Amino acid sequence: MLDLYQYPLLSLGLGCLALVLAPIEIGWQLGTRAKSSGGSNVFALEQALLGLLALIIGFSFLMALTRFEARREAVVNEANAIGTTALRARLLAEPHRTESLKLLQEYAHIRVENVRRGVSLADLPDVIARSNEIQEALWLRAKASAASDAALIPAGLFIQSLNEMIDSQGKRLAHLRNRIPNVVFVMLVVMTVISIGIAGYAGGLDLQRTRAPIYLTGLLLCGVIYVVLDLDRPNAGFITVSQQPMFDVISSMAAFSD
After folding, report:
1. How many structural domains does the chain have?
2. pLDDT (mean) for 15-25
3. Which keywords does this Swiss-Prot/TrEMBL entry list (predicted)?
4. Neighbours of 93 (CB within 10 A)
5. CA nearest 205: which of 43, 49, 24?
6. pLDDT digits over 187-241, tens only?
């Protein structure tokens, strides 16, 4: 099965533009040659296909927007979990406090280092592996701190927030990997090509029509498909998930006085 996520967003957008605009001209030429045969059925088919296409576009846009919001919320939740863990790490006795804070700073930094490259965290196995190593190292320090803490209050609070931080990574990765199936995009493009081709054919049958409205419709459809593709790629394109909550956590940890 073709994996659309292997191709750059711009290439997919240009390919979609060509696939949508070409059938307009082909349909128009065929329609002008078939004027004498009439086209009442074609006009009815045009309206039905455009209505079905609007339904599919709305469904696809809702899928992409829902996933985008879930990924944005996952960043906020993970940043909050890291920040809470860092605050509670300051309650630990030395040397666990300094070691844990150093690991947490690295943990937050590696999550934003590749943002400007437009690469999703789920597509960085080395970063995920290093994150898992840091989590294990933090857990060992929490275990050691609990063994030396008779009251278990600071260590217990740290362990609780550390568990939440570990869980937040799993949830964030799950949201990043929950992409719109390729078959939905393929069906969307196929329906657009067929519908816009029939619209071009119907335009060629009608002497009072011009190409401009149909081409404008095709451009608008391409724009909507591009937005759907963009929403489903949180670290590429024009619409990206803000990493500002993670930057704020990094800044707050850097400002710790002890």
Report:
1. 1
2. 89
3. Membrane, Transmembrane, Transmembrane helix
4. 12
5. 43
6. 999 999 999 999 888 888 876 777 788 889 899 999 999 999 999 888 877 888 8
Tell me the C-alpha distance between 44 and 245, whole Å.
51
More confident residue, 8 or 139: 139
- Give the H or E element holding residue 256: none
Q: Give the alpha-carbon dihedral of 142, 146, 152, 158, to 10 degrees.
A: 0
Q: Could you give the CA distance from residue 147 to residue 16 in angstroms, rounded to a whole number?
A: 61
Instruction: Kindly list the distances between the CA atom of residue 106 and the CA atoms of 93, 131, 134, 163, in Å, as whole numbers in the listed order.
Output: 20, 9, 8, 18
Question: Rounded CA gap, 30 and 257, in Å?
Answer: 75
H-type helices in 178-243, by residue range? Answer: 182-205, 211-231
Q: Which residue has the tokens 């490259």?
A: 117
Q: Are 214 and 28 in contact (CB under 8 A)?
A: yes
- Strand (E) or helix (H) holding 6: none
With CA atoms as reference, report the closest residue to 176 among 71, 59, 85. Answer: 71
